[in-house]
Amino acid sequence: MTSSDLFFTTTTTTTSKKNNGMNNNNNNNKRNTNSNTNTKNIFKQQTSKTNNNQTFSHVINERLYSVGLMVHRDSAENNSSLKWEFSKENETKVQTILKRYPPNYKRSAMIPLLDVAQQQNAGYLTVPVMNHIAELLEVAPIRVYEVATFYSMFNRSKVGSYHVMVCGTTPCMLRGSRDIEKALSEHLGVKKFETTRDGKFTLGEMECMGCCVNAPMIAVADYTGGVEKYTYNYYEDLTPESAVSIVQTLAQGKMPEKVGSQIRNKAEPITGTTTLNTEPTGPNCRDLAKLKKELEAAAAEAAKAAAAEAAAGAKK
Amino acid sequence: MRRFCALISRTKRSSDEINFLRKSVALGSASSAQTTSSETTKASFSTTNTPAVDENLVPVFVDGREVHVQKGVTVLQACEHAGVHVPRFCYHPRLSIAGNCRMCLVEVEKSPKPVASCAMPVMPNMNIKTTTDLVKKAREGVMEFLLINHPLDCPICDQGGECELQDQSMIFGSDRSRFTEGKRAVEDKELGPLVKTVMTRCIHCTRCVRFATEVAGVQELGVTGRGGQAEIGTYVSKLLSSELSGNVIDLCPVGALTSKPFAFTARSWELKPTETIDVLDGLGSSIRVDSKGTEVMRITPRLHEGVNEEWISDKARFSYDGLKRQRLDAPYAKNPKTNKLEKVTWETALEIVGEQLSKADPRNLRAVAGKLADCESIVALKDVMTSLGCVNFEVEGVNADAVNVDSRSNYIMNSNIVGVEDADVVLMVGADVRLEAPVLNARLRRANVAGGVKMATLGHHGDLTYPVENLGTEASIINDLLSGKHAFSETLKNAKNPCVIVGSAVLNRPDCAQLLKSLHQLSDQFGVVTNDWNGFNVLQASGGTTGALDLGFVSSKNKHISENDGLKVVYNLGSETISSYDSEPGKKFVIYQGHHGDVGAAGADVVLPGAAYTEKDATYVNTEGRAQRALACVAPPGLARADWKILRAVSEFAMVPLKYNTIEQCRERLAEVSPTFNAIDEVEPSLWLNGASYAHLAGGTPNVAAKGGAGKKTSGATVFASEPLTTNVENFYMTDAITRASATMARCSKAKATGSAF
Predict the structure, then answer these.
(1) What sequence ranges are listed for the domain 4Fe-4S Mo/W bis-MGD-type (chain B) (predicted)?
(2) Spatial CA neighbour of B660 closest among B450, B384, B451
(3) Residue B519 in contact with residue B429, Cβ under 8 Å?
C-alpha cells in the first residue's frame, strides 16, 4: 500500500469488504469500462459511474498534483550548476522571436522562448534551461520560474517522447474522458502522470483545450524530433478503443490517419450538417465582381487623366 | 520640513502619515519660517468644505463626508484621508499595488460590483461607501476564502497578537467554517538564519515578493504555481541574500514569515516596547526595542521619514543577542603577579584609574573614543582628560590628523539622507553602501530605479542592487576627473545636483588628507556644492563617530606624545581598534571602558564595565548630523553602569571632578560644546568653507608647483597612496563588539559564506 493509498484508508476498506478483499481498485475500474465496451455509438450515454465511496479529496488531490511540485529539487541532471544552450538552428529561431519585441520589453519573449526550449529539450524545462532564458531576457531567474510554473503546458520534469494529455474538464468528463484515461492507462501500463518504462509515453491530463464540441479529446505532444518535427495534435471524438489505437500507431512510429475529430469532418453536428448546405441564394450584400470591375475602370481612367496632364505639362 | 516635502511628493501614504500630515496642517501655519512647505501641505490635504482652489484636488465623498484629495490617489487613500480605515493585506504604501487580497473592497456608487479600493483611482465626486451591507458581505466573503487554507494554529504562531489576519477575522470572520474539504499544506522554505517560514499560513499577499524586488533589489522571491497551488518561494532553494531581509517579517501580515531568532521566546503582549535608535551603522535608524525583564527580546523598526522610513538592516534587527554575550559585568584589573585580569570592586578599579591618570605626565595621556560611544560619555571623557592636561585625542576609525573637523560639513552627509534622492548624479568614493548602510542603499536604489539618478563608484564594492558605472579603484582617478581627462567629468559637469558619497574607509587612509582635499576641490569644481545644494556626503560607519567629531574629540594642533620614558596612559572608551596606540613603543597603561570583552578589553590593564546602547539614556549623532536620543530599555548587566556616570566617578578619583552631576547637566554641557545638541532630531545645514578646509595642504591645484613624496603634489597632480579604494566593511554582519558577540550574526556570516543555513 503506497502512502497515497494510506491517505484514503476509508475508501479502501469499504470497497475491500464489497469485493471480498480482492484488489478492489481494478475491479471498480472494470465496472466502469464494461458499461461502455458494447457501444459503438459514442453518443450514447457514456458518463462513467463515479464511485460513491470515493471521497472527494481523492479527486482533489489527484488534480492538485497534475503539474508537479511548485518547488525545485536538485538532482544530478537538473540543477543550477549545469549549463544549457539553444542549438544552432534554434538560435536563429530565438533571434526571430526576440526581434518581435522592443529591446526594453525583451521579457515579452519569455513564453515563446520557453516553448522553443521545451521542444528542444525533449519536452521539459530544467533549471539550467530556465536560467539560460533568464540570461537571454535579462531578467532574474525567478521571473522565468514563475512563468514556467504558472502555465501547465510547460513541463518541469521528464516526459515521454509522446506526451498524451487527456482533457479532464467537465464537457469531456461528461462525454467519457475518464474511460479514455482508464483505457490508455491500462494499455500503457502506467498511472496518470507517469511515463512508460521505455520512455515513449507519458499519460497526462490537461484542462479544457477548447474542443468541447467534439468531446472527449486528447492532445498529443510529439517530442521525438526536437523543434523541427514537433507537433501538438488534437484527437477528438474518441472512444477508448480509438484512443488506444492512436497510441498504438504512434508507438509504431507512424502518424495516426486522422488528426482532429475521428469521425467528423470538422465540428459539425454528428447527424450531418443542417444549415448552409447550399450555395448562398442572395441577395448578397455587395456584388464583389461588379465592384471590382468598377474600381478597375475608375483606376484606369485616373491613370489616363494623369498621363494626359503629364503630357500637357511636358508640352508647356 | 523636508520630511513633509518628501511625503507630499509621494503618492502613497499610510494612515499614520496622513494623520501626521493633518496635524502638520494645523501646526504648519504657526511656523512662519516653513511657509512654502506648509502651504503645500495645506493645499494637498484640505479637509474643509470650501470649494477646492487647487486644480489638482478632486472632491470625493466617503460615507457621505466630502473630502478633497489629490488627483490620481486611490480610493483607499481617500478613505484613509477621510479617517475611515479600510482593512487590507496586500496594500502597502511603500510597495507597488498588487490588488490581490481583495480585502479592501468598498462600494462605489454606480459601480455594479464592489471595487478593490487599493487599486482604484478616485474620480471627481465619487461616492464611496464603506459601511454598507454589501461591503460587509463582500469582505466577509473574502475573509472566508482567505481562511479556507489558513491553519488554525494561532496559539502556537509567533504572529499571534499582532497578526493582521487575526485582527481582521475578529471583524469579518465567521465563528465557524463552512469548508469541509481538506486544507492544503505547503512546504516550508529555507530562507536563511533570520526568516522563519511556515508557508501554510501564507495568504499570498506578495508583500515579501514586492519588497525583495522593489526595495531590497534582490529578485529572489516569487510566486510559483497558480491558483490553489500557488506558493511563495525561490523555486530553486536559495537563502535570501539581502541585508534588509528582516523587513519581510514586519511586512508579512500573517505568521508565514516570522523571526527565527525570536521564535517561541515571547508573546508580543508580554513585551515592553522602548522607542530608541540604532547605532550599529551611521544612519541611526529609529527602532523599537522590545524587552522582557532584563532581556532584549527583539528589535523592530520605527517610522522615520528622514532616516530609515520604515526599514532597518538585518544587523540592527538581529544582533541583539550580542548584547547578552561576552559582556563585561564587573570591573577588572590586571594582577601584577599573574599579569592576568581579575575581578575587582568598583572602588579598587577607580582608585587604580584615578591614581594612574593623576600621576601621569599630561603629555603622556591619551584618550580614544570608540565608534559606539555616546556623546554624554565622550564629552565627559574629553572634560576629564582636558582637565588633566591631555592633548591627545582620537576617534576610532578616523584619521583625525587628516580630517578637518572645524566645519561640520567636512564629515557629515550634507545633502541629508533624504537629499540623496534630489541628486541627479551620485559618485560613491571608497564605499560599499550596501554593506555600510543598507537602508541608505535602498534609498539610492529607489533614486536610481524610479528617479533615473546616475550612479557611479570609485573603488571596490560588491553588487549594489542597481546598475553603477565603476570608474576604477585607483585614487588617482580623482586627478583625471579634476583635469577633465576622464569621461565621467562631463557627466559631473552637466549634472544639476551632483552628489559625492565618501565612505568611512577614506577617513582612515594614510592619504586621507590629500584625498579629502581633492574631493573638496572636485565638489567645488563640479557644483557638488552650490548656494542651494550641498551634495558632499560623508557616510560614517557607526553611531558614535559623528558625535565625537562634533565634540571636537581630536588632538589640538600643538599635540604629540612626548618621547620621554614615562608611562603612557591610554583611556580607551570602547574602541576595538587598538593598533593606533598598541603599535607605539614604550610602556603603556591602558584603561578600557566599554561593554564587551573584545579586543579593547583584552589588551587593557583596567576594565570598567559600561552600558550598551540599549542600556543607557544617551545621545548619538548620525551621519547626517542629526542628534538623536537613545533610551535605556533594560538595565546594564551586573555591575556595569552608564558610561558618563563612570567617567563622572573617574573624574572624582582623578582629582578633577566634573561640574555636572546629572544627565540633564551633562546635556547642557553638550549643548555648550556644540549647538547640534540643542536641537534633537533636527538637521541644520552646515557651513561649507569653499576649499578653505584643506587649504593648508600642498598640492591639488595644477598651477601650484610643489615637490615631495607620497601625498604631495608632483608635476601638477596629487599622488595618492597606491592601495585601491575600498570599503572598510568586510563582513556586513560583524562590524563591532556587539555584532561580533552575536550568535545570530555569526550564523548569518556563515550562511553568506557558504550559501547554506546549516
Answers:
(1) 271-327
(2) B384
(3) yes
In a domain, B458, yes or no: yes
User: What is the number of CB-based contacts under 8 A between chain A and chain B?
Assistant: 60
Q: Could you tell me the residue range of the domain that residue B388 belongs to? A: 332-403+546-683
The residue among B683, B714, B743 that closes a domain is B683
What ipTM describes this predicted complex?
A: 0.86
DSSP state of B50: S
> Nearest to residue B215, comparing CAs of B101, B77, B74, B93?
B93
Angle value at C-alpha A150, between A145 and A155, nearest 5 degrees: 75
On whether residue B228 sits in a domain, the answer given is no
Distance of alpha carbon B579 from alpha carbon B600, whole angstroms: 10
Query: Is B357 inside a domain boundary?
Result: yes
Domain membership flag for residue A302: no
Give the distance between the most distant pair of CA atoms in chain A: 111
Model-level pTM?
Answer: 0.84
Residues of chain A positioned with their CB less than 8 A from the CB of B189: 71
Q: In whole angstroms, what is the distance from residue B300 CA to residue A58 CA?
A: 44
Whether residue B184 lies within 8 A of chain A, CB to CB, comes out as yes
For residue B710, count other CB atoms closer than 10 A to its CB: 13
Written as nine digits, the cell of B749 is 556570516
Average pLDDT for runs of 10 along chain A of length 316: 38 37 40 39 41 44 60 92 95 96 95 97 95 96 96 92 95 95 96 92 92 94 93 95 96 93 89 86 82 94 94 85
Beta bridge partners of B481: none
* Domain count of the fold of chain A: 3
List CB contacts of B204: < 8 A, sequence separation 6 or more: B100, B101, B223, B230, B232
Whether B428 and B377 map to the same domain: the answer is no
Q: How far is B220 from chain A (nearest CA, A)?
A: 6
Cβ–Cβ of A61/B182 closer than 8 Å? yes
Say yes or no: B635 contacts chain A, CB-CB below 8 A.
no
Binding-site residues on chain A for chain B (CB distance < 8 A): 56-57, 60-61, 64, 67, 70-72, 74, 80, 127, 139-143, 145-146, 149-150
The residue among B200, B229, B239 with the most chain A CBs within 10 A of its CB, best to mutate, is: B229
Same domain (yes/no): B489, B606:
no
Give me the CATH number covering residue B497: 3.40.228.10
- Smallest Cβ distance to B224: which of A61, A74, A146? A146
> Does B530 share its domain with B550?
no
Distance CA B8, CA B444 (A): 19
B749 has a pLDDT exceeding 70: yes
Mutate to test the interface with A, among B236, B237, B238, B449 (most CBs of A within 10 A): B236
Q: Is residue B278 part of a domain?
A: no
Residues A254 and A193 in one domain: yes
Cα gap B259→B305, rounded to integer Å: 24
Query: Are A221 and A204 within 8 A, CB to CB?
Result: no
